[in-house]
Amino acid sequence: MKAKRRSAIPLLDDSGTALQSRPVRRRNRDQPTLPFDPMPGRIEPCLALLRPTPPEGPEWLYEIKWDGYRLAIHIEPKGVRIITRGGHDWTDRFPRIVEAAKRLDVGTAILDGEAVVLNKEGHADFGALQRSLGGRGGKRASTEAVFAAFDLLYFDGHDLTKTELSVRRHLLTDFLDGASGAVQLSEEAHGDGVELLANACSMGLEGIVAKHRERPYRSGRTGDWIKVKCVQSESFMIVGYEQSAAARSGIGSLLLAARRGDSWVSVGSVGTGFKAKDAEYLRKTLDKLKTKKPVVPVKGKNYVFALPTLIAEIEFRGWTVEGNLRHASYKGLREIQDNAAVFDIATLGDRS
């Protein structure tokens, strides 16, 4: 004979009233499967400090330094967004990366990384990336760019920014295991920092980045990430050009300036690195920005001065005793959306 099933006995409070649990709060419709941390609309990026030599010790991991545009990929229930370092939405500029992100097996995630275009040797080519986007001010969508992911900031309902890098990298590596399309893992480079830098330089790479394994993800230049470059590269303001009848499009060299607090200071000029198409665009654009009063006092003939509007990425080998760039070469113009910071001469004491 079966025993009669007894009804559940309610829990009572001191007054004899049955206790009831609080109703479960309604979920956000935009995140129907995520009861944990709300997904941030944007995370200000962690930036690397420039140092002359890499830090040493088991607490540091190393990666190659990518030469491209810093981006964050937001994978959401409603689709994928691509956000630039400056907070601009560039989803329509990288359709190939968007499609690859949609195919990743995840509900929600925020990937931190860099969009690059690789050359025949498999190295990032900043100029090729710019051309794929139609140049400065261009609106072309790049079908050549790939995304090198080096950090995972949010994953399936969990905010990972307060988690140490070693854990974030472990999750990222598992997440992107085997990925080989337009979204790929930026691999950790194992070995001694000095040797890794030497190898990177011998291969023609831009340099390496060292990251502290036990630090959380902190926005800004905190020192948690250190970059060491094979060749120095910084952003400078173009403040005019030197006319030349013999040079392409009439530009012999570009006049460059760096910041000094709230003012500008001349750092010399650059006359190599730009192609005929680059020079033609620069001449037309700078002529529209002409000004009779130079932004910085420069002595010389055949100078055309311009308002400080165009920011150029310049490679160089060091500084002269006069404070000018040594062996400078033009790499390309920076986009406003890329949030490029013009070099501040006050930080020169921290540079090599």
Automatic annotation (TrEMBL):
EC number: 6.5.1.1
Start and end residues of each stretch annotated as Disordered: 1-40
CDD domains to which the protein is assigned, alphabetical: Adenylation_DNA_ligase_LigD_LigC, OBF_DNA_ligase_LigD
Catalytic activity line of the entry: ATP + (deoxyribonucleotide)n-3'-hydroxyl + 5'-phospho-(deoxyribonucleotide)m = (deoxyribonucleotide)n+m + AMP + diphosphate
InterPro entries: ATP-dep_DNA_ligase, DNA_ligase_ATP-dep_C, DNA_ligase_ATP-dep_cent, LigD_ligase_dom, NA-bd_OB-fold
Keyword terms of this UniProt record: Ligase, Plasmid
UniProt domain ATP-dependent DNA ligase family profile: residue ranges: 138-229
Name recorded for this polypeptide: DNA ligase (ATP)
Organism: Ensifer adhaerens
Gene label: ligD
